[in-house]
Amino acid sequence: MREKISRITFHVSRINPMPYLLGIDQGTTQTTAVIVNERGEMVEKHSSHLPARFPHPGWVEQDPRDIVRTVREAVAPLVARYPITAVGFDNQGETFIVWDAATGEPVTPAIVWQDTRGQSVCDALAPFVNPDDLRQKTGLLLDSYFSAPKLKWVFEQHPDLRRRAHAGELKFGTTETWTLWALTGGKLHITDPSTASRTLLFDMNRFAWDDDLLALFDVPRAMLPDVRPSAGYLGEVDFGSGPLPLHALLVDQQAALFGQACFRAGEMKCSFGTGSFLLMNVGATPRLSDHGLLTTVGWNFDGHTAYAFDGGIFVTGSAVQWLRDNLKAIPDSPASHAAAHRSTDLGVVVVPALQGLAAPHWRTDVRGAMFGLNRSTTSDDIVRATLDGIACRVYEVVTAMSQDARQAPPHLKVDGGPSGNPYLMQMIADLLNLEVRVSAALEATAMGIANLAGVSALGTSLDTLAQNWTAETCYFPRMDADTRTAKLAQWEKAVRAVKAFHE
């Protein structure tokens, strides 16, 4: 029956041609491509796993060729079956590659956003950098999370690469820039303002690379890509089945913000994956945080500009993987829901800072910890406490955003694999005392970049996209105020202890 339906659908599409949009989400663990129709509905998706390597503590790398390969593999079966009107391409954000401008051969691995090798650069530059001036210009902190400190580290460790960069022999790019260069034979060396705003080299107010920051990090302007609008015709790219028009570029989390239809100031989303990434639309004018958040470009195109508060939590899905693979506490990730419900010892607390505490603490030196263990503690208690710890981290960031915005969000929209964990979603709703809406779109990020391409190529309105957004499941708070207060006090005590331990 399934095959018969497929043939009928194909036959009708030939009689009544429909424009299809291709969205490519080049993420940290996989590349996912989706086909979206003109109504903003996902028709089909395909993914390809992207491996990583960890050569030293704190180092996270990927093979640049694997990035291009996974994009080709994810896209190939889709472009062969659908007539594509426009392509949108989102990327990992801070992850970057340096390559030979003449040959296109990478001279560095892809140095991933999680990598901390640039911390020594940040420490050395800190006495010479006014953090308030840096935030005014970039919205960011002097932190190894971003591209520039790690790029300067590369130059310090490899003087020949620095020499070649200043001689105009090398190019720099985030994962979409690198892939587009590779697929077009060097014809496209471009990025967009949202991605450029994650480098620590970009003035988010002027939408331009900044000479003072380039000098600070010793980066020659000639190696950087051209910054183009987030949407509009950007050129053509060939995935192996002929050239297709590229119409949209964004960072993955900004693509998810767009995909969740958070078009109005105050609307917020959280995308769960390796980490948890929360963005709140703050409107067309940049605003700075007083509570440990970043400010980033959401998108900028054709009169549409959005900035966002950004709160990254680096460990979420990876904490569940740690429970599964390292502790053998669960057989698979979905089993964490049942394990949490079996837990009977609510005194166990886990601070899942397996890669430091990012927003709003920004303590890269901190590591995870468990509290309240006793002879009766079970693996179920540790699983439950880890999920509670993830929920508490989300609570911290949403609270900081609400304080900075001087208003609570109307609700929290969520997407990504862990959003399918009922225990975790209910705990977040309970701690926030706020409705949590799980997106019906399983691939909100890829669909977001596809729909942005549709805004450019098809003239789709933001109002239409907002009306089409639907929730699969909604979680409403049901925890009483006293329990909530006690649980959050327990968490805050644990975080203070972890910070003190590493001072």
For the structure shown, list the relevant keywords.
disordered N terminus; seven-stranded mixed β-sheet; 503 residues; globular; six-stranded mixed β-sheet; Nucleotidyltransferase, domain 5; 17 helices; 24% strand; alpha+beta
Question: What is this structure's SSE topology?
Answer:
Layout (H helix, E strand, L loop, with lengths): L1 H14 L4 E7 L3 E8 L4 E8 L11 E2 L1 H16 L4 E8 L4 E5 L9 E2 L7 H7 L5 H8 L8 H11 L1 H8 L3 E5 H10 L5 E2 L1 H4 L5 E2 L4 E2 L1 H6 L9 E2 L3 E8 L4 E9 H8 L8 E5 L3 E8 L10 E8 L2 E10 L3 H9 L9 H8 L6 E3 L17 E3 L7 H27 L6 E4 L6 H11 L3 E4 L4 H15 L3 H7 L2 E5 L5 H21 L2
Parallel strand pairs: 1-5, 5-14, 9-12, 15-21, 21-22
Antiparallel strand pairs: 1-2, 2-3, 4-7, 6-8, 10-11, 13-14, 15-16, 16-18, 17-18, 19-20, 22-23
Helix pairs in contact: 2-7, 3-5, 5-6, 10-15, 12-13, 13-14
Can you characterise this structure?
The protein is α+β, with helices and mostly antiparallel strands and 503 residues long. The protein has a domain at 15-250: Nucleotidyltransferase, domain 5 (2-Layer Sandwich), CATH 3.30.420.40. It has 17 helices and 23 strands. It has helices spanning 2-15, 64-79, 119-125, 131-138, 147-157, 159-166, 175-184, 193-196, 211-216, 252-259, 317-325, 335-342, 379-405, 422-432, 444-458, 462-468, 481-501, and strands spanning 20-26, 30-37, 42-49, 61-62, 84-91, 96-100, 110-111, 170-174, 190-191, 202-203, 208-209, 226-227, 231-238, 243-251, 268-272, 276-283, 294-301, 304-313, 349-351, 369-371, 412-415, 436-439, 471-475. The longest helix is centred in the last third of the chain and has 27 residues, at 379-405.
